[in-house]
Amino acid sequence: MSKVIYTSPVFKDENGNGRKFLIAAEGVSTHAKRDAMLIKMIALGGINAKPTEEFMGYRKKMMAAKRKIEKNGWFSAEVV
Known about the structure:
alpha+beta; flat
């Protein structure tokens, strides 16, 4: 399994830059989809957001991506 460096738009380091993670190349699009949904959920209020239909749709897609990452073992390791 080949690995690539993925820069997360959600998780930041102490300087405000995206954290870099080493992930499986096959999982890049799934990690990106998960992060895109997290950004949309944060924009609606994050954990304090009301469970509107829009928010729950984003959550459903985020959870599906999370389960796919877990199922396929596409876990990340932080690059330091």
